[in-house]
Amino acid sequence: MLNYMKSAAAVAVLITLGGCSAYLQSSSGTDYLARYDRLGYDAAPAAGGQDAADVDADVRRIASVEPRLEFPARIGLARVGRFGLTAIPGDEALIWQAALEDIGDSFGEFVPVSPLIASMVSSPAPEGTDRAGAIIADIRRGAARQHLDYVLIYEVGSSSREKSNAVSLADLTIVGMFVIPTRSIDVEASASGLLVDVRNGYPYATLTGHSEKSGISRAVSSISTARDFVDTAEERAVAELASDVAEALEGLKQRSLELAAE
Fold first, then answer.
1. Which residues, if any, are the signal sequence (predicted)?
2. Residue 49 phi/psi, 5° resolution?
3. What are the C-alpha distances in Å from 107 to residues 35, 217, 236?
4. Domain count, the chain
């Protein structure tokens, strides 16, 4: 029992797991809409009356967008926080800098989208407006003022769970609360990204980086420890996302060459 207490008091090295996923898109809106005639959509009236007809018209308008891929390009980085576009934190900026330096300058230059510039060219969204859509629209406006071609919009989120472990009875003692790790903490973090065309809103890639972190903490420091776990897990998720972005850009660059040759 004494050996167990000593090893527990040493605060275990944390376990970090990471992963990422990505989906690339370069399909043609013209090709998509050509299926309307080929499959006979235009010949059939909309089922559901005028409301359905309005939706059908929206679908056609939305689908008409075309990919416009060309490298090198000016690519923006835009981080979405709790209240909208925010400055990229220093630790995350270093992660992006390292990841983008690794892929060189063949893709062009990467520029943070400035919240101040975006605020100069944006207006408050009307009440009832979809928040996510308004934020993305403001980011595109700011990116346009900075003369960016594409912008990677990303946000980071996490969830944590805390529970007592086998030595939680030590919480009942004054010394135990300060010395013995009696809390198990598990954190899951994700960083989700969307690469869009600034000019027409075409979505070239959706990406997600995942990270998990777990460890143990003393009762009196569980809140601060959990915050540290969250920060580290979120940074790890951003690192996974940054790595995935590099691979996605390579795939999109190859696709741009194919489109240019058609």
1. 1-22
2. 80, -160
3. 34, 44, 24
4. 1
Phi-psi sector, 27: left (phi>0), alpha (psi -120 to 50), beta: beta
Evaluate whether 209 touches 191 at the Cβ level (below 8 Å): yes
Whole-number Cα distances in Å, 224 to 13, 89, 157: 16, 19, 18
CA-based nearest residue to 89, from 160, 15, 191: 191
Q: Which of 192, 204, 193 is nearest to 65 (CA)?
A: 204
Give me the residue label for tokens 């370069």.
26
**CA–CA–CA angle 106, 18, 164 (5° rounding):** 155
In three-state secondary structure terms, 231 is helix
**Distance, CA of 120 to CA of 122 (rounded, Å):** 6
Band of pLDDT at residue 231, cut at 50, 70 and 90: low
pLDDT of residue 179 exceeding 60: no
pTM for this predicted structure? 0.76
| Within-domain flag for 44 | no
Q: Is residue 56 part of a domain?
A: no
Listed in sequence order, the residues at least 6 apart from 17 whose beta carbon sits closer than 8 Å to its beta carbon are: 210, 211, 212
Mean predicted confidence (pLDDT) in 244-253: 91
Is 119 within a domain?
yes
Q: Compute how many other C-beta atoms are within 10 angstroms of the C-beta atom of residue 222.
A: 18
Residues paired with residue 155 on neighbouring β-strands, in sequence order: 80, 192
**What DSSP line would sit under 170-223, residue for residue?**
GGGSHHHHHHSEEEEEEEEEEEEEEEEETTT--EEEEEEEEEEEEEEEEGGGHH
Containing domain of residue 98, as a range?
2-26+67-261
